[in-house]
Amino acid sequence: MADPMKIRATMSGDKVEVKVLMSHEMETGQRKDAKGATIPAWFIQNVTATCNGKTVLSAEWGPAVAKNPYMSFKFAGGKPGDKVAVTWVDNKGDKRTDEATIS
Amino acid sequence: MNTGRRKVLKGSGGLAVMGLAMSAGLFKPGSAWAQAGWNKAAFETKSVADTVKALGGATPATESKDIVITSPDIAENGAVVPFTITSKIPKTESIALLVEKNPNTLAATFNIPEGTEAGIQTRVKMGQTSNVIALVKADGKFYFTGKEVKVTLGGCGG
Question: Which value does ipTM take for this structure?
Answer without folding.
Answer: 0.91
